[in-house]
Design brief:
Helix content is 14%, strand content 43%. By secondary structure, it is mainly β. It has a single domain, classed as outer membrane lipoprotein receptor (LolB), chain A, CATH 2.50.20. The two termini are 21 Å apart.
């Protein structure tokens, strides 16, 4: 499982929900509308395509999948169930059906990277960690682009570019440019409010997978 995939996917999809007080006013207005959509839904569902490339190492990677988020819980299915990720607000399970293995971990809430492991944290942290700039409309469409620059220069990427549909006020594309020649791209095929789901939906059910090896990384 490509960890970079998990990290940027969550950044690209859910970063817009954190709106900074020190933003380009026009960009802030648009990001605020994205935030209102997220906060008004008990559960958010999204279907997406993802790609990664590095011009220095010539590495390429692509995937597609689905994600559900309920407050501080989420579930991700990657590329026709090549991987399943569950997070119940405390414990994370990364299940790889092809090798019948599940890794169990607890994300470090004090880590600077915690927000990329839990998109819900974007509502509470990093509200002053990025500068934004409205880049203008996309020719021939109802979309616009907004660039985000991390204040913390230690971040592995120097820019995130969002494409937002101004009619629906929804994110359609997110691209991050890394400092080492890396480019991460998420294209949202669908995003919508979802019916409320039980908490058990966001937990790996060990009873349904009795033959799976459990690798507990919490100790």
């Amino acid at each position: 499982m490509n960890r970079k995939y998990i990290q940027f996917f969550l950044i690209g999809l859910f970063f817009p929900f954190a709106v900074s007080a020190q933003q380009d006013p026009k960009a802030q207005e648009i990001l605020k509308k994205l935030s209102e959509f997220a906060r008004s839904s008990d559960v958010i569902y999204a279907r997406y395509d993802y790609s990664f490339k590095n011009i220095q190492t010539k590495e390429n990677f692509s995937a597609n999948g689905e994600v559900w988020i309920k407050k501080d819980k989420f579930k991700i299915l990657v590329s026709q169930k090549n991987a399943e990720i569950y997070y119940d607000g405390e414990v994370m399970w990364t299940y790889i059906p092809s090798v019948k293995e599940v890794n169990v971990s607890v994300p470090d809430s004090t880590s600077n990277d915690f927000f990329i492991n839990n998109p819900a944290e974007l509502f509470r942290y990093y509200e002053k960690e990025y500068k934004t700039r409205y880049m203008g409309d996309v020719n021939g469409t109802n979309a616009c682009k907004i660039d985000l620059y991390p204040v913390d220069l230690k971040k592995p990427y120097y820019r995130i570019r969002l494409t937002i549909d101004k009619t629906t006020n929804q994110l359609t594309e997110a691209e991050a440019a890394g400092k080492n020649g890396e480019t991460y791209l998420v294209k949202l095929k669908e995003i919508r409010p979802e019916k409320n789901l039980p908490d058990s939906f966001f937990t790996f059910d060990r009873k349904k997978h009795p033959d799976v090896e459990v690798i507990d990384l919490r100790f």
